[in-house]
Amino acid sequence: MQKNNEVKFEVLHMPPMNTNSVLVSAGTDAVIFDAWGKATDWEKVLLERGLKLRAIYSTHGHPDHTSAAPALARAFNVDWFLNADDNYLIGFANEFLEMFGLPHIHGDYKKPLNLSAGTMEILPDIKMEIMESPGHTPGGVMFYFPKYKILLIGDTLFQDNVGRYDMPGGNKDKLFESIHNLYAKNLDDGTYVVHGHGMDTTIGWLKKNNQFFK
Fold this sequence. Notes:
Elements: E1 2-4, E2 7-12, E3 21-26, E4 29-33, H1 39-49, E5 52-57, H2 69-76, E6 79-82, H3 94-99, E7 113-114, E8 118-123, E9 126-132, E10 141-145, E11 150-154, H4 172-184, E12 192-195, E13 201-202, H5 203-209
Parallel strand pairs: 4-5, 5-6, 6-7, 11-12
Antiparallel strand pairs: 1-2, 2-3, 3-4, 8-9, 9-10, 10-11, 12-13
Helix pairs in contact: 1-2
């Protein structure tokens, strides 16, 4: 997606292809956003590229955005971050994971640390703004990188639609409020938007083409 002074943002589609995961690396250090798939597949990617995993972040607690996170966090002894309002969703993951042939998340998994609104430095000189975006789930968040004009929007908004709000914990009013709050931030039209699923867009594209982005 982007390379700037050895800083890379890459959208990866780990098998079974379903979710847009993002690998951010700077030199030999790396973090993963929405670690879908198997932890062992991620380990291979990191090994092949000579990367050291420093942390894992999830936009929300649905299993298609967290399936590999607990095992990766334990294997590499790193922190996994998730808004605490979504912690309860981890316990409902296994039936979904079975459908995709993925390993269960066992009861002794490494628990995530709470992620709330604010600014974090995820790697040296790489700062992100965490924006809370409840509605798809109670603890949904988005990650914005001002220096690179990149937004990881999760399942709050898609290319031509919005995230579901009819699942447990979903809330239509909160979802549309989250979308409106993002619109009101007036991010640069060229901001690159990575959605949880489907094609990437830009803020300008969404303004013109997504009827819900207002």
